[in-house]
Amino acid sequence: MNGSLATWLYAVTAAPEDGAPPRGLTGVADEPVRLVESAGLAAVVGSVPLADFGEDALRDHLEDLEWLERTARAHHRVINGAAGHGQVIPLRFATLYHDDDRVRAMLEERRDDFTATLRRVAGRTEWGVKAYVDPRSFLPDPDEPAGGEESPGTAYLMRRRAQRQDQETAHLRATERAEEIHAALAALAVATAAHPPQDTALAAYEGWMVLNNSYLVPDALGAEFTALVTDLGERYPAITLEVSGPWPPYSFTAPPKRAGDAQPEETPS
Amino acid sequence: MTRAIERREVALVDLLDRVLAGGVVIAGEITLSIADIDLVRISLRALIASVRVENEEAGEGDLHDRREGGPP
């Protein structure tokens, strides 16, 4: 391979005792994955050609759906693979350094943050839950249409206004149910994170996505959590629930907010 | 209702929610000027554009009509 290389970062883990990289994993450029260790931590990295992963090249590639899908899946595959060997902290897609020395320096500099995050996510797993509704299921009962003597134009406008109000009512009702579902799920989680509703075309659904959340759940409660999703799906037949996971803790790498956030730091079990 | 998911691989949209918007953000050296928000926006723009094209090619245009329909 000609040309210069850059170091693509996948994840940070505690340095393994044997120092061995996860076997058989290949990364976003089909490159073998290796470890860069420092400060008791290890970065899971690969060397990728700058020609494909430099800033300009990346910018172009990001507009290419096939490239994006292939590369995002490769990034995830490495993180997932590394997670099989120990707790990982996933790094944001497209984190690149010029060389391994810079990576080591970064690990040293951020050791305290990484160590705290590793402690916080240890023994816990991210689960995703989405909820969809068909707005029609939440519309108010169609009362007698109001009025009778108006001109056709007025009647039309009133009907339109009533429809709009009905939509708002339906949305409110659906959102309230989603909040109840979220509260029930959050009771089993040590932290939650909200994602924006997904694009209807991308996610191929109709109606409204009223929940798109991640839950950080203690491993011991994982089965209970997925069973609860099923229960909730039965309790709320008008809402379609979809669970995804287990995920590496992508959505829980930021330090928890000071006040209000679910759980105070505890000693890891 | 709960939809059983039996995909061999995770759904791309769910993956992108996490891979592009999650994970630790370190100002790497090379993508320094591709801010987070850009990463998501650029990629989603590409995705949405390509999905729209696919849908149009498939000739399914009546998705939007349903919205206006109100209660049946």
TrEMBL record, chain A:
The keyword Repressor does not apply. It comes from the Bacteria. Residues 246-269 are annotated as: Disordered. Pfam families: GvpL_GvpF (PF06386). Keywords: Gas vesicle. Transmembrane segments: none annotated. It is found in: Gas vesicle. The keyword Membrane does not apply. InterPro entries: GvpL/GvpF. Belongs to the gas vesicle GvpF/GvpL family. This is GvpL/GvpF family gas vesicle protein.
From TrEMBL, chain B:
It is found in: Gas vesicle. Signal peptide: none annotated. Keywords: Gas vesicle. Belongs to the gas vesicle GvpA family. This is Gas vesicle protein.
